[in-house]
Design a protein that fits this description.
By secondary structure, the chain is α/β, with parallel strands linked by helices. It is built from seven helices and nine strands; from the N terminus they run βαβββββαβααββααα. This is DJ-1/PfpI family protein.
């Protein structure tokens, strides 16, 4: 079976650590070294490589012009300096893509600064959501979703996952759940290991995964 694409938007100063758990585990082979059900496909505004916040050079697999919700299981957007109010137009095309995905019923996951971009696009006005703080997302021009803000690490509402930048593990868990990547006992053990540091969860995870 050909793995289904999970698309990851990439742009200069992307906060690579916010999606590290996501990409590693979506692309990870199982304990029998078989490919998983999904593969991460990177999407850029152009074909030019970008430089992440961590200094990694990443070349897009495809461009936004080639991106279609019909050929995707999810669109994931990480934070970056280019989502900020002074650069509000830099990632507009990625926010537009998120709108197309949500309109098509395909999930979108946004963390940290990406939530600011979605707020500026009006995508948080009628959905429950979170961000780095209520004050942070209020910086978005034309944001009208304050009544729907929730002070939680991750919030899921009608196909949209939003997360604070300090919760990459919880963000990953919500993405795994939305993709039905793991059975519930595996997902629980995974989160206990990476989210709480419980050493006993390592053995539970190994056993559950088998």
């Amino acid at each position: 079976m050909t793995p289904q694409a999970v698309h990851l938007g990439i742009y200069d100063t992307m906060s690579d650590w916010e999606v590290g758990y996501v990409t590693a585990h979506i692309n990870k082979r199982d304990w029998q070294r078989r490919p998983g059900r999904y593969r991460v496909v990177t999407v850029g505004a152009t074909t030019e490589p970008v430089t992440t916040m961590g200094g990694l050079r990443v070349a897009p697999d495809i461009t936004l012009d080639e991106l279609s919700p019909d050929a995707s299981a999810m669109l994931i957007l990480a934070g970056s300096e280019t989502w900020g109010p002074t650069n509000s137009g830099a990632n507009t095309a990625f926010a537009d893509a998120a709108r197309r995905f949500l309109d098509a019923g395909v999930p979108v996951a946004a963390i940290c600064g990406a939530t600011l971009g979605l707020a500026a696009a009006g995508l948080l006005d009628d959905r429950e959501h979170t961000s780095n703080a209520a004050q942070f997302v209020a910086f978005a021009p034309r944001y009208a979703g304050a009544a729907h803000y929730r002070d939680e690490p991750v919030v899921v509402d009608r196909g949209l996952i939003t997360a604070t930048g300090t919760a990459p593990v919880a963000f990953a868990r919500s993405i795994f759940d939305a993709l039905d990547l793991y059975a519930p006992d595996v997902a629980d053990a995974w989160f206990d290991l990476y989210g709480t540091g419980d050493p006993a969860a390592f053995f539970r995870l190994e056993q559950a995964a088998r």
